[in-house]
Amino acid sequence: MKSSLRLYWICIYTIILSTSCTKSGGPGKEEPPFEEGIIDPALVGTWLGTVEGSFGSADMTMILGNDGKVSTEGTTELYCPVNGTWEVLEKKFEIKGKDDCDGTSVTMNAPYSKSKLVGNWNASSGNKGTFSVEKQ
Question: What element of type H or E holds 19?
Answer without folding.
Answer: helix 2-21
